[in-house]
């Protein structure tokens, strides 16, 4: 039995709050169409969380995002050096591909 799933990216969201703000810098996706039959193409979401003394980046995107990531951060008034914490949801390259842009 064949199942078909349809996915679509969520719109970019910015949810301000009195104690924190959350900004989706890059919307991820997953869709059929990889190089092998039955495979998928996917890219992870990159999210910025700001509150109090913390500036947290959840996932850094893939290495192909490297030229664009500083500009995505700058649009929110943040430089890579301003990021105090990085959370990587898992070790795939589309989630952890730019860890080296952030100081230890």
TrEMBL record:
<dbReference type="Pfam" id="PF00753">
    <property type="entry name" value="Lactamase_B"/>
</dbReference>
<comment type="subunit">
    <text>Homodimer.</text>
</comment>
<protein>
    <recommendedName>
        <fullName>Metallo-beta-lactamase domain-containing protein 1</fullName>
    </recommendedName>
</protein>
<dbReference type="InterPro" id="IPR036866">
    <property type="entry name" value="RibonucZ/Hydroxyglut_hydro"/>
</dbReference>
<dbReference type="GO" id="GO:0005829">
    <property type="term" value="C:cytosol"/>
</dbReference>
<comment type="function">
    <text>Endoribonuclease that catalyzes the hydrolysis of histone-coding pre-mRNA 3'-end. Involved in histone pre-mRNA processing during the S-phase of the cell cycle, which is required for entering/progressing through S-phase. Cleaves histone pre-mRNA at a major and a minor cleavage site after the 5'-ACCCA-3' and the 5'-ACCCACA-3' sequence, respectively, and located downstream of the stem-loop. May require the presence of the HDE element located at the histone pre-RNA 3'-end to avoid non-specific cleavage.</text>
</comment>
<dbReference type="InterPro" id="IPR039344">
    <property type="entry name" value="MBLAC1"/>
</dbReference>
<dbReference type="InterPro" id="IPR001279">
    <property type="entry name" value="Metallo-B-lactamas"/>
</dbReference>
<comment type="similarity">
    <text>Belongs to the metallo-beta-lactamase superfamily. Glyoxalase II family.</text>
</comment>
<feature type="domain" description="Metallo-beta-lactamase">
    <location>
        <begin position="44"/>
        <end position="102"/>
    </location>
</feature>
């Amino acid at each position: 039995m064949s199942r078909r799933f349809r996915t679509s990216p969520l719109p970019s969201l910015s949810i301000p709050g009195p104690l924190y703000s959350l900004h989706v810098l890059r919307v991820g996706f997953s869709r059929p169409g990889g190089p092998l039959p039955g495979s998928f193409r996917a890219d992870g979401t990159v999210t910025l969380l700001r509150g109090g003394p913390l500036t947290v980046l959840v996932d850094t995107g893939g290495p192909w995002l490297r030229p664009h990531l500083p500009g995505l951060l700058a649009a929110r008034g943040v430089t890579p050096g301003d990021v105090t914490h990085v959370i990587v949801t898992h070790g795939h390259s589309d989630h952890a591909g730019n860890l080296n842009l952030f100081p230890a």
